[in-house]
Amino acid sequence: MTRIRDFGVTPGMLPPGSLNAITDVTGVRVGHATLIAGEGALREGEGPVRTGVTAIVPHGGNVFLDKVSAAVCTMNGFGKVAGFEQVRERGTIEAPILLTNTLNVGRVVDAGVAYMLRQNPHIGIENKHGTVNVVVGECNDGFVNDLRGRHVGQAEVWAAIESATDGIVQEGNVGGGTGTQCFQFKGGIGSASRMVHDGRYTVGALVQTNYGMRSEMMILGAPVGQHFIDSHLPEPGPGSIMMVLATDAPMNSRQLGRMARRAAFALGRTGTCGQDGSGDFVIAFSTTSRRAHLTDTLDEAAPRLPESGPMIDPFFLAAVESIEEAILNALVAAETLTGRDGNTLHAIPHDKLRDVLQHYRRIES
User: Fold this and answer.
1) Cβ proximity of 288 and 250 under 8 Å
2) 278 a catalytic residue
3) Which of 33, 97, 274, 307 could cross-link with 56 by S-S, CB 3.0 to 4.6 Å?
């Protein structure tokens, strides 16, 4: 698996965690279920299939009973995300976060609810337990996938959740990123992390890329996309991106929302302006700022990050840098993929990318 630092570049100023992934935030786990089957012409409901689902599990316990503080941000709402309104209202996430394709959101929500009902048999029966909110994001992989077939179901969702680990995050053509693009190259899943306040806290990012025009692509401030313009650009142009931020800092929902909104600066660093048809969404959560589902305590005392500039500004920078690098990791980790009707998303040529980065003196000597 190739990552952007393998080209000899060092994105950003802050140091990454040991894995340079969202799983550097203690307790966070990531799992994928990837579906690749069939070749040739589209046969609706049969294939070819080039899709999947990615699960981000906030901690190793029961997330419904031990919710994490969270926030969501919509930059451009051309998308089919689910579960955002309760997060905005209550400021928590109470189930694994799931990323899939556009027309599969309903099936993935249903599978996520079924998983939580199995884990929590009192949901929907006892009033004190109430119901459950499952957050699902999406990107459109219909250029190479039988999108109308809606091939991701309960088996795939449960497999992604149950296979989630806290180790290296697989990137590129996996899970929810199996059939997606990035600046009209093959894209997919990417991840990165940053350490702040001398390593006391970590911010990690995971992205599902499906956005951007080739001509606008920038890497570390260099107009790289201009060097890859040719007559064989694939159909996908403006698309979407799902961005997930995790931190172990004790942030409340409002603070997480402030950090989430900084993702716009990360996208800007890659050159995009967020076209009309783009769905750009951020989900942010804190693993150490939690809320018990049931409590008898009237007054809750919990640590909270101060909001003075020197305390919170490094988290904003960490969010920007980790999302930017996660996008670049998704781009260079992806491999060429051919799907329905022979439609092909080509991987960015590594040799040429290295030459272009050298041309702009972005590669360290």
Assistant:
1) yes
2) yes
3) 97
Task: Calculate ∠ Cα 277-222-10, nearest 5°.
Answer: 105
The CA distance from 336 to 104, in Å, is: 23
The range of the structural domain enclosing residue 163 comes to: 4-292+306-355
Catalytic residue among 191, 193, 240, 286: 240
Question: Does residue 280 carry a catalytic annotation?
Answer: yes
Q: What is the rounded distance in angstroms from the CA atom of residue 187 to the CA atom of residue 335?
A: 8
The CATH number linked to 349 is 3.60.70.12
Q: What is the pLDDT of residues 342-354, one digit of tens each?
A: 999 999 999 999 9
Is pLDDT above 80 for 238?
no
Is position 297 within any domain?
no
- Domain assignment present for residue 360? The answer is no
State the catalytic residue, choosing from 69, 253, 280, 286: 280
Is residue 236 pLDDT above 70, yes or no? Answer: no
> How far is 72 from 360, CA to CA, in rounded Å?
36
C-alpha–C-alpha distance, residues 210 and 202, integer Å: 26
pTM for the model stands at 0.96
CB 42 within 8 A of CB 146: yes
Residue 323 lies in a domain: yes
pLDDT in tens, 42-67: 999 999 999 999 999 999 999 999 99
Q: What is the pLDDT of residue 295?
A: 73
> Which tokens hold the place of 283?
């989900």
